[in-house]
Amino acid sequence: MKIKSAAFVMSNSNVTKCPKDRLPEYAFIGRSNVGKSSLINMLMERKDLAKTSGKPGKTQLINHFKINDQWFLVDLPGYGYAKVSKKKRTIFQYFIENYFKEREQLVCTFVLIDSRHDPQKIDLEFMRFLGENKIPFCIVFTKADKLGSSKLNKQITSYKKKLLNHWEELPMSFITSSVNSLGKDEFLNFIDQVNTDVAADFK
Ligand code: GTP
Ligand code: MG
Fold first, then answer.
1. Pocket lining: 78 vs ligand 1, CB cutoff 6 Å
2. What is d(CA 95, CA 146) in angstroms, rounded to the nearest whole number?
């Protein structure tokens, strides 16, 4: 898929105020600092479309971007950031949960996992939440440039094996790097295919 346009639409913390256009939507979620906003910029070939930071907790709202006037991409706040106050964390959880439960046009969620890490409780719990709410998701391994290729393959094979202790089937997965654009074409082709598959539902 060629990116002809990528435009920021709005930020908010209330699912009922999200854009009303009936377009297929893709959400990016994962631990704080895992690379959600960077991945969005890499895929869209824009440096600063989504705001990134070396410090966790940068993205704090539901951010909608309209791509090719055809679909939405959504950058979400990360979970698991210890420095966010308990009260704020609860509010985050509330609006993120609501977003996932109520956003009807959400066709696929990308759960981002740092390629270097073993399965962590918070990610497994989030995937379970998606499963329980029948929300389709893919796993995206990020920051692949931080590992050599043999270590990377070993780590991902081991991650998937461990995931099978919790899931009967593995979701589709991608290996990406926002530094060297690894995985870009595969990722965009996947979205293109899903857009085609769901087109009839969005007429
Ligand atoms: P929050 O909005 O705080 O939840 O974080 P986020 O998941 O959006 O992460 P963000 O994209 O802001 O990136 C966090 C840090 O990781 C930044 O310093 C990025 O430069 C770095 N980073 C993101 N992706 C990659 C990657 O593929 N490779 C490398 N080496 N660094 C990355
Ligand atoms: Mg972010």
1. yes
2. 32
pTM, whole model, 2 decimals?
0.96
b/e code 43-64 from CB counts within 10 Å (16+ = b): bbeeeebbebeeebbbbeebbb
Q: How far from chain centre, in Å, is Cα 199?
A: 21
Does residue 111 contact residue 149 with C-beta atoms inside 8 Å? no
Strands 137-142 and 173-175: parallel
For atom 14 of ligand 1, the residue with the nearest CA is: 33
The Å distance, Cα 167 to ligand 2 centre, comes to 27
Q: Please state which of the four CATH numbers 3.40.50.300, 3.90.110.10, 3.30.70.20, 3.90.79.10 is assigned to the domain occupying 6-15+22-196.
A: 3.40.50.300
- Best of 122, 178, 181 to mutate for ligand 1, by most ligand atoms within 8 A of CB? 178
Neighbours of ion ligand 2 (CB under 5 A): 36-37, 58-59
Q: Quick check: 90 pLDDT over 90?
A: no
Indicate whether 82 pLDDT > 80.
no
The Cα–Cα gap between 199 and 36 comes to: 26
> Could you identify the atom of ligand 1 that is nearest to the CA of residue 41?
11
Show the CA angle centred on residue 78, arms to residues 91 and 74, nearest 5°.
Answer: 95
pLDDT at position 5 is 97
